[in-house]
Every structure is written in structure tokens, then in C-alpha cells.
């Protein structure tokens, strides 16, 4: 009974203690925008820098690099993604749908799925050479004769007048979009000298590849950019927190142009870039593969070193 009385008196003293009003010194311009429990202080210059750094600039570091892409071209893409974040959407989806992750034991197939292999193809400037066997071409005879479509294992040689040989795009160089993807500014591994009438095209990911077993194990340099993946994760988390903290009357005042909502597309794109970085490795350059057209280019003075 004695202890119960002491506890009761203690609780009474604590509960009966009067509340105190405390005055806090806040910077000029502090307001709650008419929302009880909300306290908005004026932003400092460091707050503005952190907001832009973690919501916008960090997104630029998550943009996926294509195989063999030059630094200048990648910098232009990064600037475009800063101004319009959806610009990098195709890169992220392309990396996710490449399927390179499932071939982590096969370097050659993984590189093909990633779009890191290139092959020699003919251009519209290609012309036949007298005395040579022409393959992968369409022979158009004179109007009174029938044209012939030559397959890859056929050859045609004639000296008749009125014969026109036209090249065509064989199905094994066509991408999933239905047309070849030619190499323009990408970096190609090794050294090469392309004769006139030839260029490089990206090897489709679903093409048939034959590895030279006698050459030993094939290692193609590639790496998963862990730093980029971590930055994408951090940027997604920070942008999501910014969206969650978007409260008060900023949406009522500015609508969809509210600064708290501007980070939404960057958060979505960073999430896609995060998944894409984990699905497809980075390749510093493209790798040349041997083909019959490359042998034909060699016979015309071409040189290729560093093929796989």
C-alpha cells in the first residue's frame, strides 16, 4: 500500500506539471503554407545544389553506354538525357531485352546478344572485279532474259553484255528491326583497313556463330559497371524520397510543374538503367568476327587484325 501511494503521487506530479511554450528562432521567410504541423524554411544555396546534384546530375551517371561508344557521343547523350530523361529509355529497354545475362558462361554469345560484335558487309559502292566469283548477289540479265537470284553458296561469272550484278542485304545481317545496323563512330577492337565498297555492321544477337576450338578459350573483355548500378540505386532512392516529401501547397500552386514532381521521370529512368546495367555488361569496343565477306575484302587488299 505504501509503494502504491508513492507511485500514485509520482504519476500525479508528472501529469500535473504545466506545459511550457518554447519560442524557437526561425529564419525569415519560414511558413507552414496554411498546413498545421508543416514547417517550411527558406532553402539555402547548399540545399539547391544537393537537390540538383542527387536528382538530376546523378541520373546522368546512370545512362547506359553502348558497346564501342565514343566519349564524345556518350557525353552528347548524357546532355540529352538531362534535358529530356526519356531520351535514354530505348537504351535501358534495349539492354534489358538483349538477354545477354543468360549467356554469362559463353563470352561469344554474350557479346553477340549485347551488340558488341561486328562483321564486314558490302555497301552500295561495291563493284565486282573481273575474273572473280561473286556470291551473295542478284544477277539482272538483259530485258529478254531471266534474272537469277544467287544464294550464299553459289557463284556466277559471265562476260555477256547487258549483265548487271546488284548486291543485296542477306537475312543474317538484319537486326530485329528488319534492317542492318551499320557501324559509324564506334570504336573497333584491333586494326583494320577496309577497301572501298565495304563497311562494318553489327552482328545480330540471334545469328549462328562458330567458335574456333583450335584457337583455345575465347575471352572477350567486358565488365559490369557496379559503380553505375549503385549510383542508379542511390538516385532512385533519393528521387523517391523527394517525391514522398512533396507536400504542402506546392502542387496546388504549381500543379504538375511543382519542383517535387519534376524528379519523377528521372526516378523511373534510373530504375530502368539500374536493371539494364545488371542485364548487360559494358564493352569498350566492338569486336570483328570472321566471315566470307571479310575474306573477300582481304582479297581486295583489306587487312583485319584482332578478330574473334
TrEMBL record:
Residues 1-16 form the signal peptide. It comes from the Eukaryota. The keyword Signal applies. Keywords: Signal. This is Uncharacterized protein. It comes from Westerdykella ornata.
